[in-house]
Design a protein that fits this description.
This protein is mainly α. The protein contains three helices and no strands.
């Protein structure tokens, strides 16, 4: 799909992640396993809540932190 390819290029460039790879991982391993893996890199070390991949801001305490490199999927 043209839109997914465009979004994939943008996310690779801006956020160092691939939408297509993530979708393939979900297809093979399930959403629960994908979510668990993503939480490793996108949780706030300050309060434990999730933080945004776009601006690294925690959704709960609003602190801004470095994103942790997630083991390649």
């Amino acid at each position: 799909c043209k839109e997914i390819n465009r979004m994939d290029r943008r996310y690779k460039s801006n956020y160092k992640m691939s939408v297509k790879v993530n979708l393939e991982y979900i297809k093979e391993h399930g959403l629960k396993e994908f979510t668990k893996k993503q939480y490793q890199g996108y949780h706030c070390s300050n309060c434990g809540a999730l933080k945004s991949v776009h601006n690294r801001r925690c959704f709960k305490c609003e602190s801004i932190q470095k994103l942790v490199e997630i083991e390649k999927i």
